[in-house]
Amino acid sequence: MPLSLTRRLYFLGAAALLLTGSAHALDTSKNKVILSLSGSISLKNAGSLANFDMAMLEALPQHSFTTKTPWYPEPKKFTGPLLRDVLAAAGAQGKTLKAVALNNFKVEIPAGDAQQFGVIVARLMNDKPMLIRDKGPLFIIYPFDTLIELQSTRYYSRSAWQLRSIEVQ
Predict the structure, then answer these.
(1) 63: which strand partners?
(2) pTM
(3) Of the four listed, 20, 69, 75, 120, which is most buried by Cβ atoms within 10 Å?
(4) What domains are there in the chain, each with its CATH number?
């Protein structure tokens, strides 16, 4: 499916900004790296590493959904770019995503999930930035309430909170 001109401009802007990131993973200020993608990515002059700061993630089209999760007693609203848009902005091409959390927890996610489901890289919960103690600052989250098949251990276990990096394989 071809990208609209607006989406292409977002991706081009994000790609241009990728080349200027710094290396402070826990600092969520606008120009500090918050998420790194490595592995099978293809950006001109960027090698195999793409860094995103919070402003770059905010510049991508934002999506929201409210869903029940096993981690919170009440449904929560999550907002952020689609995982597939983040991958596209980095030129990611692979079959498996290895998401790594701040505490080095790792989970493998089939790259096809990013295309098939509306998985987002949440940066807001209930319209507020996510703190580390609230599973932030970034959280790969599935829209569990949209399909009954997503309400299973298989997909719950693919969610990755306190996300810091994704290795594309």
Answers:
(1) 80
(2) 0.80
(3) 120
(4) 5-168 (3.90.420.10)
